[in-house]
Amino acid sequence: MKRLAALFILFLSSAAHAEPHRIVSLNPCLDTVLVDVADRRQIAALSHFARDKVSSSIADIAATIPITRESAEEVMAFDPDLVLTSRHSSLPTRNALRSVNIKIELFNEPKSVAESLAQIRTIAALANREARGEELIARIEAALAAAAPPPGSAPVPGLVFQANGFSTGDGTLVDEMLRRTGFTNAASRYGLKGWGNIALERVVADPPAILLAGVMRADTPTWADRILRHPALRNTKNKMKVYTFPDRLIYCSGPVLIKAAAALREARQMAESE
């Protein structure tokens, strides 16, 4: 009897740590982490955003993996044993999946580097690939260390500026990335907290040292290009430099932080050059 009880306990323990074989991700940022830490054979599907060559950093990889547009019926058809979702994912879909006892892990959007690293560890553990999670974290930490400003250097006032003046202020992951790479976030001087829009007039009246201008595609002009052609900004060109980068570098965290850190380091060096 004791032997049977011991075997039953062992069975429950093994089941609790069973390796998922059919993981579906419904969020583009979770997609980027999943493809980095899980085996390809473990991934049943990614979100359809993963194949968007403009906004996704893993579009080439995603082209080789099935995708889902997030309907409950479509997700169920993949017969997943684990679904990764965020609070931006469809609530009706999440409820429908729960109703048929499909395991769901719900994630918040990281607001700091620490939260992003914790999310990586969680996803890696869910995939039973903890070592890969730690390898990814080590790469991110190395990239951040390489992008850090020289000791004693003065922070550079910089402003992330996207279409329609969309920017990011205090309390965001982007804000922390700016500080870690040698900037002060100029959004605070315009009174912006979190995400929001900054009026052109505010930038004209008090331009930062460098405008970090997002661009959707390499063959299209950036919003900053359009702004700088505005008559009101004719006199700011000698006061403010412009560095362009792909918008997708600030959409997600996880492995995207590696390229984001490198871009911000290059931007700071540009701002500091004569």
CATH architecture of the largest domain: 3-Layer(aba) Sandwich
Helix content: 40-55%
How many domains, as an integer? 2
CATH superfamily of the largest domain: Nitrogenase molybdenum iron protein domain
Please work out how many helical segments DSSP would assign.
11
Tell how many strands the DSSP assignment holds.
11
End-to-end CA span:
81 Å
Shape: elongated
Strand order of the largest sheet: 3-2-1-4-5
In N-to-C order, the SSE pattern is: HEHEHEHEHEHHEEHEEHEHEH
Mean pLDDT: 85
Here the CATH topology of the largest domain equals Rossmann fold
The helix/strand class is alpha/beta
Largest sheet data: 5 strands, parallel
What integer value in Å does the Rg equal? 22 Å
Overview in brief:
The chain is of the alpha/beta class and 274 residues long. It has two domains: 17-144, Nitrogenase molybdenum iron protein domain (Rossmann fold, 3-Layer(aba) Sandwich), CATH 3.40.50.1980; 150-272, Nitrogenase molybdenum iron protein domain (Rossmann fold), CATH 3.40.50.1980. It has helices at 2-16, 28-37, 59-62, 72-77, 91-99, 113-126, 130-147, 173-180, 200-205, 223-228, 256-272; strands at 23-25, 43-47, 67-68, 82-86, 104-107, 156-161, 166-168, 183-185, 195-197, 210-215, 241-246.
